[in-house]
Amino acid sequence: RCMSRLLSAVESELQAGREKGDPTERELKVTLEDADLWRKFQHITNEMIVTKNGRRMFPVLKVSVSGLDPSSMYSFLLDFVPADTCRWKFVNGEGNLSACSGCSVGLKPGSGSCLFQIMLNSLHKYEPQLHIVCVGSRHRLVSNVSFKETQFIAVTAYQNEEITALKIKYNPFAKAFLDAKERICCITWLFW
Amino acid sequence: RCMSRLLSAVESELQAGREKGDPTERELKVTLEDADLWRKFQHITNEMIVTKNGRRMFPVLKVSVSGLDPSSMYSFLLDFVPADTCRWKFVNGEGNLSACSGCSVGLKPGSGSCLFQIMLNSLHKYEPQLHIVCVGSRHRLVSNVSFKETQFIAVTAYQNEEITALKIKYNPFAKAFLDAKERICCITWLFW
DNA sequence: ATCTTTCCCACCTAGGTGTGAACC
DNA sequence: ATGGTTCACACCTAGGTGGGAAAG
Q1: Measured CA A126 to C1' D20 distance, in angstroms
Q2: From the first residue on, what is the mean pLDDT of each consecutive set of 10 residues in chain B (192 residues)?
Q3: I need a surface site. Which of A120, B3, B48, B125 has the fewest CB within 10 A?
Q4: Nearest nucleotide by C1' from A174 CA?
Q5: How many percent of chain A have pLDDT more than 90?
Q6: What are the GO BP annotations of this UniProt entry (chains A, B) (predicted)?
Q7: Nucleic acid strand D within 7 Å of B116 CB
Q8: What is the pTM of this model?
Q9: Is the CB of B122 under 7 A from strand D?
Q10: What is the C-alpha separation between A79 and A65, in angstroms, rounded?
Q11: φ/ψ (deg, to 5) at B18
Q12: Helix or strand or coil: residue B75?
């Protein structure tokens, strides 16, 4: 079955805990950034384009972390957990995606932990998951969080035009298409 | 006196020593990359533009390091050591720089260790210096190297047009001016 | 036929060049 | 007048968008 790649990045902002540090990470807090934006996409079922050479995520997965020990070293690992066993299918012209029951494909579990060039199955739903590991003489898993808001269906082309519209509206790299839309509006208005 | 900034970067390639590592760094080797290119500039006295907001170095300071302990953490620090006490001055139209003796300006020592936005005195000569520090419960200075090939005079505008020509020839971001030169050659040739 | 993937493209963002006029 | 600095600018590099045709 088709396997494509999705470029992903974890951008994190570290906020040192209290001055003396907290070697136990008891008050660890991981917060999703741009949560409002993520929820806009989540509301209409988010999609992410995957390509052979890798594609950036938009919105970008960003978290801020507080409560770590400032004198320790940490690794941040990201993987994508299958959110269901369905192969999603585009039905009716209105652009809604619905789960196609009874055709569960043999899904591989998240391919371990890797920051870039992660293989995903197109038309399957994933939930990004973040691992925080304290690096030392022996590694210690500190946290293991994921956010429902960041779920998405991997696709090779957008299925829901509302998703396309949101991506164009908020991703500066799609500015060209935003301008095009505005020009069309303008022309329509002049014609009117 | 005028102080301007020079953006600098240390790009380094780490080559782990032998499999078992070398916690003593006894066989540490630091090699300057693009040494041939650096020597081309050195041969006619290199200049680097400094600006208020910072300017990249070209050539880029890159080193490859071998003989480190793969299980240790290292920091790479860069500073710029005054190479003499002269204020350099542009003399004769031929574009040569020569030292103006007897006007030594009070030079501050290298401003400690800082990777970006380093303040340099225009018209003074510097030699980049690299520090390698092993990060641990207490830091340990591992190495302290500099390369004569990378000496340069900080300037706010190029003084020697041969330097300008070399920068344009080898820096892809100055391609526009390379093309312009080629066009001029072409027009001259057509006219001829 | 239909669904899905791949490729090339125009059009952006983002930012690194030296130039030359203006400024001090 | 002279020497040095600053600024806006045209022109690049580098690479991220979705569209749409073509292919599978």
Answers
A1: 28
A2: 54 54 80 98 97 95 94 91 89 54 35 56 96 89 95 96 97 92 67 59
A3: B3
A4: D17
A5: 55
A6: cell fate specification; heart morphogenesis; mesoderm formation; positive regulation of DNA-templated transcription
A7: no
A8: 0.81
A9: yes
A10: 18
A11: -75, 170
A12: strand
**Are the C-beta atoms of B121 and B88 separated by less than 8 Å?**
no
Q: How far is the CA of B31 from the C1' of D3 (A)?
A: 39
Residue with tokens 């192969």: A87
Token representation of residue A123? 């038309």
Residue nearest to nucleotide C13 (CA to C1'): A173
Strand C footprint nucleotides (protein C-beta < 7 Å): 3-7, 10-21
User: Residue A2 — pLDDT band, cuts 50, 70, 90?
Assistant: very low
Identify the pLDDT of residue B8: 55
Residue type at A55 in one-letter notation: R
Task: Look at residues B29, B40, B39, B36 and name the one whose alpha carbon lies nearest to residue B63.
Answer: B29
